[in-house]
Amino acid sequence: MTSKLSIREAMSAGGVVYREDAGALLIALCGRTRTGTWNLPKGTPDDGETVEQTALREVKEETGLEVEIESQLGHIEYWFTRESKRFHKLVHFFLMGERGGSFDLHDPEFDVVEWFPAVQAIRSLTFEAEADIVRRAIEALATRSSGDV
Question: In whole angstroms, what is the distance from residue 117 CA to residue 125 CA?
Fold first, then answer.
């Protein structure tokens, strides 16, 4: 007998938080020491939140940083199963500039939050789809910089 899993749609939002330090582009990543995983900050919406509000709140909670959305970076999607339900998830990402705060203020969801040089961030991320989002962010920043000249 084959049982069918019910399919649910799910959504999250987050960002690629960056800053420049002495000409180097740095990206904030959230890590779990037990599993050795590194991720972009993201999470699910509270009731009534827009995608942008969710992204701003989740990034602040998970990193401790005050950020500002600068542009959209697109989304990733994937499937997972939990409690006999199959989920199709869309995760929306935004390019976000750091405006204040401190990693010391991050919530306990992640063990550590750190700045990584952009290329090292791409290599360190656990999921390739998130690495692709960081590549989009780097490209967006490079395009913007070359347009300013």
Answer: 12
